[in-house]
Amino acid sequence: MSQYALLIDYKYCTGCHVCEVSCRKEHDIPLDEWGIKLTEMGPVKMQDKWLWDYVPVPSDLCDLCEKRVSEGKKPACVHHCLAQCMELVPVENLSAAMAEHSPKVTAFMPR
């Protein structure tokens, strides 16, 4: 299986927590642990603008749904994301994919 990264364009994340719920259900993760955790940054006033972002952060438990991906499916968080702000990208295409998105983009690769 080729190497993949999870590309998250958090400019569009609405903070719905569906990524957390779908990951927990897919991997049967206990309530005190997370495969992906939604963090909230803000609200904070910077000059004349208010900034308020939600940032999904994968944990060490995230394996990018290796089993689902090997079956040709998307990772659970990507499949269920209501804002469609996550995508699974082959590592060799990561740089180009990041260039296509807003400046509020981050990438995650499991260990």
From TrEMBL:
Q: Where is the 4Fe-4S ferredoxin-type domain?
A: 4-34
Looking up PROSITE patterns in the UniProt record yields: 4FE4S_FER_2
Q: Which UniProt keywords apply?
A: 4Fe-4S, Electron transport, Iron, Iron-sulfur, Metal-binding, Repeat, Transport
InterPro entries linked to this entry: 4Fe4S_Fe-S-bd, ET_IronSulfur_Cluster-Binding
Record bears the keyword Phosphoprotein? no
Q: Does the keyword ATP-binding apply?
A: no
Highest taxon in the source lineage: Bacteria
Stated name of the protein: Oxidoreductase
